[in-house]
């Protein structure tokens, strides 16, 4: 019954002089779901593309064996590969907005995958397209077929993409980060859809950076790091009793309920130091902001105390970032007020506003775009210290001190952000935010672009800084696990409103609002024992 | 952060608004060009009658007629409004050197120029599309050779390209007529001369665009559906690179129009270029003013057409989004 | 990654272009160093001779040595190209900044004006101006410079408009920097960056435009050793003396090509890091 659909051994892939895949072996049998998990640069996507003969330009591919559907594929011609693509193996990429041709209707995109295309009549193809869209749960398929990708929501786009991948009923569906760009509730729907395909007999190869996403669906998990598969086994075994240190590190780095109040990196599980909340540093009252008739923020009120973290959680378009910009005084509210340290932004002169800005700093999701491309780290920090009133002579010393505080070496002072890694850039951004000695730092999705292990380090750093400096965080994120990990209190936003707010534990364990419940239910979860396995390592 | 998440019924009104805004801007441009022409008349040193008459000698009756035509005894703003009114009615003035109205002079010379322009642009478009589609992301050697040729094509001045073609193909090889030459054989060399730099520019822009587009995830997805490389290039990528090409269109049109003056002179062709050049050397200002207004009008029309073409190519612009910059 | 590296090391073409430009500048500054003869020295006995050892590039209808004339032609061409570019950049920058940093009204007014001028081909406008002012080298330079202004104005305005909304400007604002400091330290330097590359390439375009007008008899007049004028003066002899038609044009093309190659190299280097 379970024949091998794909058999791959000893795969190496080189681009130029860099070897990105080093001796990977992988088997997918009919009807099973295999997950390939790893952080960026681990070579997981390249491995998946090799199974379609689409490794990329200038790639040198070598494999001991590569059998697809029982046929030796090592010497496939382009024509033979094209027979495999679509009919034998379907392929779904992440972020359908860029994976569907923006200039064509989704009906055309799906139709393109139908074979035989030339001999079928127009009406037949149209019928097939509608049927396929229906099969992946697209409502009103006739209408949707004539719409363009930008006219559809992310979830519908992803469904349309899946429809085009399964048009020829492939025996294997490869999904490369199929839910990465999606909101958590939509992610849950797409995962259910993939699960449905699996139950109807399609084999799945899931590529993901997120262990939790694959946990529910995968029969087997392969963990990849630097082009090598470091661990492989049944999903439950890998997740509950990981053998390889890297797998353990990955699992430990995942923030969430189990890790609250403890460190995620280094020696995980060690309790974090915590300070006591002090006086009020942000007081937002009934904030309202409307853009071109569309309300972005409606009657938002909250309060943040020194040394405390308020998590602002919500899906895309919920008004989180607008709220942040109102709080930062970068936007003026239509109604309502924001007080920073007791000073209202309204009615301040420009000079007084600038003064107040020192008290509230910001860390963005994409640190690179928040640095002037012409500046090196020294100039970035120098400018922030200048604002903080630091005299010129002591700025270099203070810069080094700040870098040490965020765990960076003084040797990067002369480097430009472009030559730094994502984690280093975010640390520089944090150092810059600390330079004027602020009372509050607004963190707008500060770890969303980072790999989970780097994310763990940055979250730990933020916690340490809070304990040392008593700084307050307004922590904005779409990631519930991260918010739960870092926040003391949490506010859930939907359609511009705060629908629920409260102590983080009570909101997460006993959500009052339906939307909060829906959100929390949609979060993919790791099996709990993973924590137990890690804790054995740590002496009590 | 804010993404269009809800599906909307395709709203018609943003397109209508965009079109209206564009039309308004076009009218402004035309008005500006007419004003510029009028201003140039007044900026010229010497009396306006002399300027209008240029180098020909006229009877006092004609002189009086000019003063009456242009209302030269009226205040400037009345003259200006009168001039605007005449241009609106299609009256571009009178050439006292050629003894004909400027509009009829222009319309009699427009056909050969239009022929040359369209042939040159068509030739350039077809060559550039094929060249870019067939060479993008191919071997280093091929790309190197083609991009080298493109650089040379961009650097060659249009008039020298004409001289060179004339010297080689007419004087040395005798394949094509050296001067005039009605019909197709007379059109080949001038059209090629006009097309060279346009082809090079277009092909370069489109090839660079293609190399970006072919890296896009939707191309990978299309290939994963089993499409051949060539099918992906023609069915998906081509439309994407037409966008930057269309953006350049208005400017390229101007480039060709400017090139007409030298090319028509070199190949001794009839046309607007010759008319303009003779008017400039003969100081026949009414004709030059007329050509300037006409060119601006053509530019406006071309740009409106290109704008519509944009809407046809890119469905995203039909939505509520602001026109892409 | 490899792209970045690729443009760090100049390719042979870039070296070739640099060497040619150095020669060209030498010719413009000290033409006597490269050739000894008088560019206007006629020798009717040696009229319309093909390339020989005495006259490597042949002679024209008046027996003047083409090589000597082409070397001497470097100065007017380069001066015209640089003059046009310098004038138009200076004016364009002022207008672009005013539009980009000023209010909505200033922006709309200036940009509509720019639209008007851009709607007519540069050469046509130059012809209009020359009709008024009469032909001459100075007038052509001024006319072309005037009509290249909108291009720079628009580029600077677009840059300023984009950079104003860039993440790092918002970051600088929320850091509490003064507006003047943000404009001077962050917006201006980044807005000027692409201008440098464009300006280099536009020097080439200006040289072509000036040569075209000279060829039409509206700029430098034929006896002058100017490349466009040399082609105009040789027009009647193209059928019998190909070298008269070819070499001055080769000089223009090589000049423009070298400038373009260097300009692109500069552009790639600057774009090596994201804006």
Oligomeric nature of the chains: heterotrimer
The helix count of chain C comes to 12
| Count of all domains of chain C | 1
Identify low-pLDDT runs of chain C: 1-8
Uncertain parts of chain B: 1-11, 320-325
CATH superfamily of chain C: MetI-like
Membrane topology (chain C): Multi-pass membrane protein
Transmembrane segments (chain C): 12-34, 78-101, 113-132, 138-156, 195-220, 240-263
Domain ABC transmembrane type-1 (chain C): 78-263
Keywords (chain C): Cell membrane, Membrane, Transmembrane, Transmembrane helix, Transport
Helices, strands, pairings?
The complex is a heterotrimer of chains A (540), B (325) and C (275).
Chain A lengths: L3 E12 L2 E12 L3 E5 L6 H7 L8 E4 L2 E4 L2 E2 L5 H7 L4 E4 L3 H4 L6 H8 L8 H14 L5 H5 L8 H12 L6 E5 L7 H16 L3 E6 L2 H5 L4 E6 L2 E7 H6 L4 H9 L26 E12 L2 E12 L3 E5 L6 H8 L7 E6 L2 E2 L5 H8 L2 E4 L13 H11 L7 H11 L16 H13 L5 E5 L7 H18 L2 E6 L2 H7 L2 E6 L2 E7 H6 L4 H9 L6 H9 L3
Chain B lengths: L12 H31 L4 H6 L6 H10 L6 H13 L5 E2 L4 E2 H34 L4 H16 L2 H15 L10 H31 L3 H8 L4 H38 L5 H10 L3 H29 L12
Chain C lengths: L1 H7 L3 H18 L1 H4 L31 H7 L1 H28 L2 H15 L3 H12 L3 H28 L2 H9 L3 H37 L11 H7 L8 H30 L4
Helix pairs in contact in C: 2-5, 2-12, 5-6, 5-8, 5-10, 6-8, 7-8, 8-10, 9-10, 10-11, 10-12, 11-12
InterPro entries (chain C): BP-dependent_transpt_permease, MetI-like, MetI-like_sf
Pfam family, one (chain C): BPD_transp_1
Protein name (chain C): ABC transporter permease
